[in-house]
Amino acid sequence: MCADCHSTHLKKGYDEKEERYHTTYSAINVSCEACHGAGSEHVAWAKNPNANKGTRKKGLAVDLSAFGKKRWEIDEKSGKPVRLADIDRTEVQLCARCHSRRTQLDDDFEPGERFEEHYLPSILEPNLYFDDGKIKDEVYVYGSFLQSRMYAEGVTCSDCHDPHTLKRKAEGDRVCNRCHRRVTYDTPKHHFHPKGGAGCIDCHMPPRTYMGVDVRNDHSFRIPRPDLSVGSDIPNACNHCHKDKSAQWAAEVLKKQFGEIPKGKQDFAHAFKALRTRSETAPQSLYDVLMSDASDIAKATAATHLGDYPSQQTYMTIRQLLKRDDPMLRRSALRALESFPRQLRLNALLNMADDPVKSVRIEAARQLSGLPANALSSEQKQKRRNVIAEYERTLRFSAERAESQTGLGTLYANLGKDDAAEAAFEKALRLQPLFIPAYINYAHFLQTKGEEKSAITVLEKGLKRLPDAAALHHALGLWFVRAKMPTKALASLEKAAKLAPDDARYQYVYAVALAGTNTPEAIHVLEASLKHHSGDVDTLAALAYYHGQLGHTMQANLYRQRAERLQRFTPKIGH
Fold first, then answer.
1. Sign of CA dihedral 260, 266, 267, 272
2. pLDDT single digits (tens) 30-49
3. What is the pTM for the complete model shown?
4. For residues 62 and 94, is the Cβ–Cβ distance under 8 A?
């Protein structure tokens, strides 16, 4: 994984049968060809420029010369920067290969090609980013930068950084002053500190330290929002310096200065929290993000939740998003589509199997593998085979990883290749005995084959290694339910619910099991969960049902009405 960025022309060469690497590379570090492509023609041009007329410019595989020229100037009237050239994403796509949190799909990337054709970039997942999109885990800049107004306006990497010296184009805030006049911005009127007392980078690119020594600046270029830190774990630039003050204090200072809290471009923290916690406001919050001027990466993150609220409205929204230019949006829409019946998915999946970007095609392939092919035309069957074969090659590229072996196991199970599926699941557990999805997917596969004893053996094996894994206790509880062993089922489901109190699904399933013998306690569990997940339709429907069973007509009707409102949800436009 590290070597893909820290060397040139790396070919991993993993042999799955031998379980050995036969890795090759052209340079042990980042050489010219890592960014500029194969250099043989450039060398020929350098030796005899006249002999290379009509071929690549200076013999380079990708022309980056435009990024070394002056691309911005300051308008004298407005004092703001003006772009002198068309927006060109070539350089950002090139840098993203290494400066991003991503999954590698192959090692065939060549400079000038589209990043998403060879890599799957991470969206704003809660383990990687805070709800406001600020960096949390090490994400290597790209996903942060995509959120920014700078990126939207056409700023590119070399506007601020020199790729050859690995330094900024100027030291400290002077790099910002190349486009934003110091006389305008380094004043108490702008930053409310004494002149020189607050820096652009301090306020708009707050740092975060990784591994104790590696300081990284957030590249979303955001307005400080201390109000978002109140009652949350979201850090903010103000309290990064004013550590002796509270976030509430900082928010009040900004409100006093501006009359209101400036919101900026990344105003989706409340929406993301609502979606993450399945709040009653989540459906509207989702559309608020999709219809805003938020970045495509933020919209792609929100779009994955469309599947949480399957309806005609969300289905139509997904179909529209499948036509968007940004591949992250298309892939997120595909993921959301998985919540819908197969008859509503098949044609869309077949269409997306022809998508120009691999990261989208393989998601279509993953879902197509689980749908029957008997109703397809011969042409459609061939398309399905081709895209599934590409998906299989992508998984095999990382065959030394438990994640890929688990994916292969599920793929082969979908295709009816039971022996291959079992071998892949076994290998996943051998490669990484602590990888929870491998246990769960393997057990599910065995259950579909009717091998119930083998399935429970797999789950119990997982729990011996991971006794506090809520997902494994939940899966074991469901096994006991199918085996008609209610006492053991209840114990396992209760364990899962207690280990993962914020998981609405685990609380719901435990309550349903509990209701068989103790309906009032089931209601108690559901109402406790509803305090944290006020928009979970299953929880609301269950509460309506169980209150009705006990003759609590008023409560039952209130919960039923809330559930029906969410199921009939129609977004308010421009509310």
1. negative
2. 999 999 988 888 888 888 88
3. 0.95
4. yes
